[in-house]
Amino acid sequence: IMVVVAGDVNSTIACALVASKLSIPVSHVEAGLRSFDMNMPEEINRILTDRISDLLFTPSPDADENLLKEGISAERIKLVGNIMIDSLLNHSEKSEKRNIHERFEIKRGEYALVTMHRPSNVDDEEVLTEIIDGKEVISENIPIIFPAHPRTTKMISEFGLENRINHNPNFVMKEPLGYLDFVVLMKHAKVVITDSGGLQEETTALGIPCITIRENTERPITVEQGTNTIVGNSKEKIIKEWKNILKTGGKKGRIPEMWDGKTAQRTADEIIEYLNI
């Protein structure tokens, strides 16, 4: 028996902790990612989960380095690639059958896709207003499609920003979307603007320019090798990177090694070997 946990949410550390106390081996998918920002709740979850896991499945070499620096033995660390890219590639063709572009009345390649949900961006009125200011400027050039997280929708309403968005025909706030609809929207966006860790990786795999409205990232490979640019949450920096994308087409980047859709098989092989099945 082995418990497999993924990612960095609260249920990840909760499940790993219970299994560890029951002396059940634990493996962690997406191990070793670090933002080095302890104010980020996920960072605490990542560090603690890695500490009590028996097998650590990493998506990139920088994650291996982080774990080794923390004193985790090399034998427990397994570089297998990015499991989210498996999902993305497996659903890519199927997503093309969705008619989301027709429903939203937008042309492929001619819109910006926006997501944001982090407390540091949406719970502070001044910060959220600054981000909305920047996106309003972008909407002067291109339609913005904004599937809004419930937390974000709530704070936009509380801060009285709803009317600004609703009265801007080029800034379209929508309910959260299903996975296939979102994938095909992401695949054909001119740019993705986000504070999501996963979207930084998926846009790199798809070759789509990504503007990340955060001060740091636990996925630095998306900046070093991919299409991701970290800009923080100031209006000026968001607009500056957008103008760069308009001028140059944005970072081209490349797909990191082992982001090939075969991570699940490599992970399964390591678990089978560990358990001697």
Task: Describe the model.
The strands form 2 sheets. Strands 7-6-5-8-9-10 form a 6-stranded parallel sheet, sandwiched between helices. Strands 1-2-3-4 form a 4-stranded parallel sheet, sandwiched between helices. The chain contains 14 helices and 10 strands. The model has no long low-confidence stretch (mean pLDDT 96). It has helices at 10-21, 41-52, 61-69, 83-95, 100-104, 119-122, 125-138, 150-158, 162-166, 179-187, 197-206, 221-224, 235-248, 263-275, and strands spanning 3-6, 26-29, 55-58, 77-79, 112-114, 144-147, 171-174, 191-194, 210-212, 228-230. It is an alpha/beta fold and 277 residues long. The termini are close together.
Could you give the topology of this structure?
Layout: E1 3-6, H1 10-21, E2 26-29, H2 41-52, E3 55-58, H3 61-69, E4 77-79, H4 83-95, H5 100-104, E5 112-114, H6 119-122, H7 125-138, E6 144-147, H8 150-158, H9 162-166, E7 171-174, H10 179-187, E8 191-194, H11 197-206, E9 210-212, H12 221-224, E10 228-230, H13 235-248, H14 263-275
Helix pairs in contact: 1-2, 4-10, 7-13
Average of pLDDT? 96
Largest sheet: 6 strands, parallel
What's the overall geometry?
Answer: globular
Q: Strand percentage, roughly? A: 5-15%
Tell me the quaternary state.
Answer: single chain
Strand segment count: 10
Lateral strand order in the biggest sheet: 7-6-5-8-9-10
Radius of gyration: 19 Å
- Tally of helical segments: 14
Q: List low-pLDDT spans.
A: none
Query: What is the end-to-end distance?
Result: 10 Å
The structure class reads alpha/beta
H-E order: EHEHEHEHHEHHEHHEHEHEHEHH
Share of residues in helices: 40-55%
